[in-house]
Amino acid sequence: QNKKMKNRNSWTAEDAIKFIVISAIPVALSMITVWLHTEKADEMIHLAFLVVMSIGGYFATVSLIPSMAPLCLEAGLSGKDINKGSDTPIPESLGLVPAMIYMVIVTLFNPLFGGRVPEYNAALTSIAFIVLLGFADDVFNLRWRVKINCSFLATVPLLVAYGGSTTIIVPITQQAINLGLLYLVVMAFLAVFCINSINIHAGVNGLEVGQSLVIGVAVLIHNVLQLFYFKETDPHAATLSIFLILPFIAVSSGLLYFNFYPSKVFVGDTYTYFAGMTLAVVGILGHFSKTLMLFFIPEFLNFFLSIPQLLGIVHCPRHRLPRYFKLKSS
């Protein structure tokens, strides 16, 4: 398996097609966004620069994962694919690669971002905190109460820097209610839900990355539509959301290439926490947290179905999946 991971010159036709299809996702969406987003020359240049860095992040992810996978195996960070009946260890925690590349891209883009810099830096801080927590969980197998409490701590920089409205509109009466600090508490719970919902809606090859990529693309399309068709949209918030989600789509696409069925690597809690926090950040700072919850409907359904197991009413196995049984020869 190590030779296969390192020797990328032996690609099959299926691998080549998969590579082209997955790579087209960040490239096409990024270029469409550049073309549609703005007519201002400086913002166009900045966004084009981010697109180039995001595409570079995609190829960096594809290039570094084969090099990191053997190191994870040597460090004991591996698992078995229980649905394939094979005892071959598969390298785990490879979500660390796209997470690190993402943070490098976002950090390098910081000097070019002329909008809400405190919120931008707070987003990066919260994401970095949660990546550390996810990797610590992969290595030390932390208890749930530790992970939940630390997830709340990771939202603190984000909530402290939040400068948006704390008012909600009641759907039926259309009455505006200012929740004040309670709104920030709700946002904290939303962020923690996003972090852990990606983590528990997992177990099938490509599911963690696939659902995150789908939600990320939906977020990108939502922000582009908000900018062009809704004049009451805060352009700075929508722009910030686009700037944060573009590199996420790119690095996640690179990871999906290796995590898609049949999976060559496992993403670990490092990626699920990283993805959940990134999506929560763009939703909160982009001021569309309610819309974000619509994007998380499958995760909400999975969460409610999992409540009896999470509360200990029903036995909760470590891997909540159907078991693979080999047929015994007579």
What fraction of the residues are assigned to beta strands by DSSP? under 5%
Low-confidence stretches: 6-11
Give the structural class: mainly alpha
Globally, the shape reads: globular
Rounded to the nearest angstrom, the distance between the terminal CA atoms is: 31 Å
Number of helical segments? 13
Count of strand segments: 4
Main sheet overview:
2 strands, antiparallel
Order of helices and strands: HHHEEHHHHEEHHHHHH
Strand order of the largest sheet: 1-2
Mean of the pLDDT scores? Answer: 81
Helical fraction equals: 55-70%
Radius of gyration: 20 Å
Query: Please, what is the oligomeric state?
Result: single chain
Give structural notes.
By secondary structure, the protein is mainly α. It has 13 helices and 4 strands. It has helices at residues 2-6, 13-37, 41-74, 96-109, 117-140, 144-154, 156-161, 181-200, 207-229, 235-259, 268-285, 289-295, 297-310, and strands at 78-79, 90-91, 167-169, 176-178. The longest helix has 34 residues, at 41-74. The chain starts with a helix and ends in a 20-residue tail after the last helix.
